Amino acid sequence: MERHPASASSRQELGRLLEAVLTSRGQANAVFDILAVLQSEEPEEIEEGVRTCSRLFGTLLEREELFVGSLPSEDTALAGSQGATYKYKVWIRHRYHSCCNRLEELLAHPTFQVKELALKTLMKFVQLEGAKPLEKPQWESHYLFPRTLFRAVVGGLLTPEDDHSLLISHFCEYLEYDDIRYHTMQVATSIMARATSQQPEVSLTLWNNAFTLLSAVSLPLQECELTNFYVKHAQTSDKWKVVHLKEHKKAFQEMWLGFLKHKLPLSLYKKVLVAMHDSILPHLAQPTLMIDFLTSACDVGGAISLLALNGLFILIHKHNLEYPDFYQKLYGLLDPSIFHVKYRARFFHLADLFLSSSHLPAYLVAAFAKRLARLALTAPPEALLMVLPLICNLLRRHPACRVMVHHPQGPELDADPYDPTEKDPARSRALESCLWELQTLQQHYHPEVSKAASVINQVLSVPEVSIAPLLELTAYEIFEQDLKKKMPESVPLEFIPAKGLLGRQDDLCTQFFCLS
């Protein structure tokens, strides 16, 4: 829709009204005319009205002309016997509340420029109201923050009706401030708790808005003094929770645990789990509290189970969590479809990481090597060029498994003792089997696959082969590589030199025609 700037006359009129209110309290009723512009149907007029309100109430807050304390009702204050100054301050603060309420409504305006300007104005009021509090401190050095106004701002972002992802991305600029980040975590936790308690089924829009905001919150990794405040204070106190990283971690943990205790849509499960290992777990006060969420995610299956295993692996590796079924869950994810899903590269990267320890029992590693070898029989070439080096790496890390290559009975076993239907790798009898599948793949139609499978015939080198460059390999890239290969100038097609088209008879015919 084409936008037209507000007319010069309307800007001049708003400027005149603003000047009148700021210069004389006798002209205070002009505030109603300014607030009326916020109800306009034209986005350009609304924007001009928001800018005027920003200058008006910003100035009044700095002048401390608003009533401070528990705000009485407007009718009670005006009917009372207090002086004119008292009545004016109560009255103008009610007008300030009316302005803030309308700005909160404008966060849902269909025009993004209006929403963005309303957000910036509200955050300006948060800063000014924090510097010049509208409530009285209960004791000396009492930490004051405009929680009511700030809660309304965050509540306007976390709505079930409108997708506010773009507006939230603009709000995230304020999260670099320690106090804004701390209060955002607290407010988001309470808003989500109230929304889920009031509605039996929460809309996907609200979940997405909440995740967009929560995932933007990041804490310092090391203990440090938190003094980068959006709301300026003359001096800080060590008694304030907002200055301690430990309190931020507690708020961060409550925020995520409150969010994850609900049944999330599958699309959000993936987003949360992708961010879990590097954006959530390192900042939790007690990372092991995520065990319930991760174990339930493991039972979902597919990509969600894989990503959940990544989080569990971190808890096992760094926080001494005991989870005996970890490798059984990973083993269960190995099926023929794993070579054809879009998260194949991530899966094998993580599988390589999970199996990297040299302290794993031989029977477990043998089960994974055998399962991968069996799946390789029907895998596409681009997957084989990644899986075969991975199998060889497993044998390099665990020499006890090399018996599967040099088995006494070799591929001449009457029947393969390995049970591919067994879910428990400990009972699969993989160590009693051999990797005959690799010998079969040495006859593969693609020369690179055949070459990779033939590595097993030689003594395995000590350094492992990195599979990182092969994780994203595609069939198109293999085809392009084949096209770029330089072929010899003359390609031998027959090892016995040809003597004429039809052999000796052809020679005789040639002589006959020559003589004739």
TrEMBL record:
SUPFAM superfamilies: ARM repeat (SSF48371)
InterPro entries tied to this protein: ARM-type_fold, CCAAT-binding_factor, Noc4
Broad class of the protein's primary localization: nucleus
Localization terms from the record: Nucleus membrane
Keyword Transmembrane belongs to the record: yes
Protein topology in the membrane: Multi-pass membrane protein
GO cellular component, one term: nuclear membrane
GO terms of biological process kind: ribosome biogenesis
Boundaries of every CCAAT-binding factor domain copy: 305-453
Pfam families: CBF
Keyword terms: Membrane, Transmembrane, Transmembrane helix
Family assignment from sequence similarity: Belongs to the CBF/MAK21 family.
Name listed for the protein in its UniProt record: CCAAT-binding factor domain-containing protein
